[in-house]
Amino acid sequence: MAWIVTYSKKAEKQYNSLPTIVQDRFDLLTAEIELSGPTRGNWKNYAKLEGRKNQHHCHIKTGRPTYVAVWEETDNTIKLVEVTYAGTHEKAPY
To answer: pTM for the complete prediction?
Structure first.
């Protein structure tokens, strides 16, 4: 069974303001999460966020600025993942 990925309203707005190349990489990350689940050790600086249950993050694009994604497993029974942040590293909620 594939994972279902949804976006918070805030993350959806942030996604729409990202540069096209970052959006493309974000789409690739989302597709990988849908197929293989939220643990994405093959992405740069991937980590489960310490002290936050079931939250993950990784860098989508490094350099200046660095873009990150933050997502959370919200329901294991139906395998739902909600993306909660898409934007620059400086404003990331961790």
So the answer is: 0.80
